[in-house]
Specification:
Blueprint (H helix, E strand, L loop, with lengths): L3 E2 L10 E3 L5 E3 L6 H10 L5 H7 L3 H10 L9 H7 L4 H35 L2 E4 L8 E4 L3 E4 L8 E4 L3 H11 L20 H13 L23
Antiparallel strand pairs: 1-2, 2-3, 4-7, 5-6
Helix pairs in contact: 5-6
């Protein structure tokens, strides 16, 4: 692990180093609070050992062996990580990748139900009439009643499905294509003048203009001779 000692520290402050990812850390590994906090959380997780063993990285395999070796029982996990060139980001990345795979597995298991819910939301359904609250009639004035003009005495009306769910179902079935951005806007482009900006806009919208061959300059009195190609 490449470590750089911070020589420009203020007086009275502990010396620090930078790991290979540029993170500041104390010179003594057992005083690395972030590393210590991470291991206090992960050591209580029963699947942390599986993450180290199934990572396929020799560094994590050596770390797993050291954590279960009595020879290193008095050695802090942060010290072991520095010994095996494992940074804090390395641990976070391997833990994140493991949990991402678990999330994909969980999502795949419940995907049929999720797809069924999306299709159900895309379908039209009957709801209670909002005009008569399902009473099938409305009151005009104080005494007269008449059939509800919205549900026509049925007490319920049909409402269309959610438009976003409908569009998603059509995209999955291939009926319509996914929306794509027609014009990509370049943000980090420096424009020197209004004329240059107009040329860039024309290039993006309609393409490069066709180049016209330069015509020879003529003088008063010159005659043009038309020749057939």
């Amino acid at each position: 692990m490449t470590e750089v000692v911070n020589q420009s520290r203020k007086r009275g402050r502990p010396a620090t180093r930078k790991d290979k990812n540029g993170r500041l850390m104390p010179v003594r590994a057992d005083r690395d609070r972030l590393m210590k906090s991470l291991f206090e959380y992960l050591r209580h997780r029963p699947d942390f050992d599986d993450v180290l063993q199934l990572s396929g990285d020799a560094r994590f395999l050596r770390l797993y062996d050291a954590l279960h070796d009595d020879v290193y029982r008095n050695t802090s996990p942060g010290t072991l990580c520095r010994k095996f060139c494992i940074s804090l980001r390395d641990l976070v990345d391997v833990w994140r990748e493991y949990n991402a795979l678990l999330g994909i597995m969980y999502t795949s298991t419940h995907f049929p139900q999720i797809a069924a819910d999306v299709v159900h939301n895309a379908m039209s359904r009957d709801v209670v009439c909002p005009r008569c609250d399902g009473l099938k009639s409305v009151r005009d004035g104080e005494a007269e009643t008449r059939i509800c003009p919205m549900c026509k005495g049925e007490g319920q009306v049909e409402v269309p499905g959610d438009p976003h769910a409908i569009q998603l179902v059509f995209e999955v079935m291939g009926v319509i294509g996914r929306k794509q951005t027609a014009i990509r806007i370049e943000q980090n482009v420096r424009v020197e003048s209004l004329e240059e900006m107009l040329r860039m806009t024309q290039k993006i919208a309609i393409g490069e203009p066709e180049k016209v061959a330069p015509q020879p300059k003529t003088k008063p009195g010159d005659r043009w001779i038309n020749r057939a190609d």
